[in-house]
Structures
1.
Amino acid sequence: MNEHDSEVIEGFLREMGYEPAPSPEEADVVVFNTCSVRRRPEEKVFSEVGKLRKVKQRRRMVIVVAGCTAQRMGEEWVRKFPFLDVVMGPRVLFKFPDFLRRALRGERPIIETDLKPFVHEGLPRCLKVPFKAYVTVMQGCNQFCAYCIVPYVRGREVSRPPEAILREVEELARRGVREVTLIAQNVNRYGRDLPCKVDFADLLHMVHEVEGIRWIRFTTSSPLGMTEKLIRAVAELPKVCEHFHIPVQSGDNEVLRRMNRGYTVEQFEGIVRKIREVLPEASITTDVMVGFPGETEEAFRNTLELFRRVEFDQAFMFIFDPRPGTRAERMPDQVPEEVKKRRHRELVSLQNEISKRKNERLLGRVFEVLVDGPSEKDRRKLSGRTRTNKIVIFEGPKDLAGKFVKVEVKEATLWGFKGKLAEVLG
């Protein structure tokens, strides 16, 4: 979500005649697009904003704090940093040009944290990668998990009409985009608030018909609403990539109940079995949290056992971080920090073993890859992703960026493969 919003903000700035500056200290406008899911990114933003205090005293500069932390804190931002010009939540992103013009006229501070429905249509986009794009299909979340701040900062669920989504995808295709990722806090719930009877599986069928788009991805999928219809749509539609990101959060039913996740471990494993029955080679990734209030040693062991049974391709593993205003912040039986860290290390070690082992089973296979460009770790090599969202590093000419190729797997890593270019598909 934040990456999409940042592309829109950059698009607005470029339309207004601005170009990227070498550093924040040299900029005329500085925008911090923030995330409030975890404490550490928030603390980093506080530090970075504070560094600009003296710069702002010396010369004219507009400083904007946008995104979820802006929404959560509102006026508190200006009390903490009186030199700020604009504080704006994610649902008023479309007003950014107006806020900036007002700030340039000397009107400050401007604080806007309205949770009115988001305006998507007509927003400019400066794509980070010109041939790949995120497309928001729905804003907000109705789940209210005990640990999560998202419903409070992004509001309730609001689905975009399918025709609006299709117009955006068609425009992206005209711009040369070859891969779109449909995003929402929970894509499975798409369409439930719309007057027309359309669900996410139906939307996949519609987007599949857009000419020029070759691959379609989606994220994030809750176990709630992961229907057989959706799984079969992924299997039946050639453009839709065989990758499911389904956050489990815990492998213990009591912890899931306290989290207000709305499903059991058994139901989650049933979804995994159905996916692998219909799509045996699909990749399944997840999010999991350790150290949630009340998580006993037995509960943590249940999470380890779930990981051993399911064998996720990859997992994003986090230490519970109480967010202000959530129910989990006030829960009893908080887990000591050293216990949380030890559990996190143990789970990461287990998942690393599983990821490496699963990837080693694919040695010698040839996979289709969309080339992103030079690898961040070794600029002499190229990096891309398979349909199952595994990273592949290989040697090849830089002009392959944006093209589809076939790569033979030569070495397995924790995050994917190292391979050899086998064929250029175009």
2.
Amino acid sequence: MEEKISIIPLGGVSDVTRNMYIYEYKNEILLVDCGIGFANETMVGVDLLLPDINYLKESGKKIVGMAITHGHEDHMGALPYILPDLPNFPIYASSLTADFANEKLVEFGQQKRVQKVDFDGGEVKIGSFTISFIRVTHSIPDTSHIFIKTPIGNFYHGSDFKFDLTPYDNKKTDFQKIVKSANQGVLCLLSDALRAEEPGKAPSESSLTYAFEEEIDKTQGKFIVTTFSSNISRLNQVINVAKKFNKRVCFVGRSLIKAKDMAIRLGYMNLPKGMEVDVRGLKNVKDSNLVLIVAGSQGQENSALTRIVSGEFREIKLNASDTIIFSADPIPGNEISINSLIDEISKIGARALYHEVSGSFHVSGHGAADDLMLLMNLTRPKNVLPIGATYRQMVAYRHLARQQGFVDKNIILIENGQEVVFTRESSFLGKRLNLRTVFVDQISGEEVESFVVMDRQKIAKEGVVVVIAEVDSQTGQIVENPNIIARGYASVDAQTLSKGLTKDLKNALSRKKGPVTNWIYIRRQIADTSEKFIFKTFRKHPMVLPIVIEV
């Protein structure tokens, strides 16, 4: 029988987050990435989403190892949630990525498990797979593409990247290693496609320096920048601009302080002695001499920036002379909270510079059309498979691939859970996993079943009505009008609702067959009848909770 290898995305295809990919050969599985997704405003009480790993637990296949491409949450943030449910296996990543991942594992009370791999080092043998890490540029240092050798052909896993020829840290994409790998043949290129719709080339990170300098020069009060804590290049830019203008720098927010300490330890950040000031020492520095780098670019409820703007941060008071720069794109779903925060800043009178009025303070870490087509030409694959993008963006990637001479049968567009099977000569679609959305509760950190989220959504949208009914234990009939407690529901008199509902309840219970004290049946009848009556009367579908009291 002809040998084959399968690729199954558990997340990251037609979905920008939850990146996790299965490479399966015979009885062995190699995993690439293990990321989280972000809940939207409709997912009440949910903090994040995880890939569904039931296939990994139930398939009987052996997980021989995992490679992590970079240190962003949507590529490695699910590790502490998922690893405890899987058998032990080796995990590999570049230096900074491994430190970010291990820090997260320790934060959850787990052992450090991610091993560091040098970009200049050799190949890593993992079961029947052999992998090597290729340095590329992205919005976080030490980002990797993974070249995967298998017994039936080679795969180039090209997740998040752009070809920045003038990166701020001067650590450029290793084009030579890309070409050297490609010369061994590439059966399929899996490529970042997030910005496939945007023509041209992605701007360089270095292009932001002038914009920061211009604004810091005109700011009379505190100069505040908020960005993602993992964007080490952006942090370095702000530090160097502050240095040029003889300002002191203060990092505000736990995630930023942690990222700063890690970057300094690994040599990715140079903070001159005496330049940094602790938040407790801010009272000793004039506002005009301060640059604050603050966590909370997404308007998170309890973030440092939100607390500063709301006046809850004791050591920092926002003034009309201050400038706040949002140096990050909004994550889809966060626009409302960000805009609300900007409104509050405007009420104080401070200047807020953000994505909609000034695009000069953020550049994407993802390649545009020219970057994506260049990677196709450098790797010269037989097949291409866009990843890390919505379906619309994947279709745009297909147009780019056609321009580069690929025919449709070699341009593979799939969704999460869809297996693609490769032989030496062909590719075809295999089985489709029925993946569920895995929700994690923001308080307990534990998984929340989908029906719980649906219940929360219903309560948030339609309200809840509690029907307390006294039922005769001998006849199974309503004794008197039920008590009604309504919350988050249309303003209706509970007594009026109770009277109108009583007739329907009596009719429903009088039709009951079998034992009169079948309390499960009685509860269900009260719930169903109440729901029908409320919808008939008010055209609403609140959650109805029946409470039956035997008398």
